[in-house]
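Morning F.,

Quick status update on the modeling queue. The single chain you submitted on Monday has been processed. Sequence for confirmation:
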Amino acid sequence: MRYEGNIYRPPSEWQSYLLQVTIGCSHNACTFCGMFKDKKFRVRSLPEIMEDIEMAKRTLGSVHQVFLCDGDAIAMPTSDLLKILHKLKRTFPEIQEIATYAGPKSTLSKSKEELHLLYEAGLTKAYLGVESGDEQVLKETCKGVNAAQMLEAGQNLVDSGMELYAIILIGLAGKERSKENAIATADIINRMQPTDLAAMTYTPVPGTKMYRDIEQGKFHVL
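Structure tokens below.
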């Protein structure tokens, strides 16, 4: 099994076989995130990925959960992603769950039919970084979508049949818009109806734009 750079996964994927199908994040512009700043996004070649799956079979033997890395595997061409899912299911027929991070822009680039095909092929869970439902916060943090688009991305994942694990960042609006952000975020989650919700706390990350804003007094952490 081969990996390029630091690998990130949701805490709940601690038992999963981590299969790196893309390098980095297709968006990689969020002002608060430093996870993939050292990587230029690219999709790994199918032969490499297929070799890694065979390597995992020889090394691990049995696999029940898989997490597709890096930050946005859903950005892959649907045809390639389907081939990977089929290969995983053939190699590990005991698989119960395959999950991935899903960027909102990448999710919206796929039709509802494509998302359902991915679910039918075995992609059972998607982690969506909603972060906030506040229009101003989404714009200022450069999420790449507005609130309506974020809601559509989440609803499309739910409609596909996948379990949607929505992630929000408490404190992302700072002190000034804390109340407005809380109300708007609660509203988008209530309308999205994810299977699970992770309410995480914003932590300043050195090297990010938001960290520099904090240093310059432009953003006030709760």
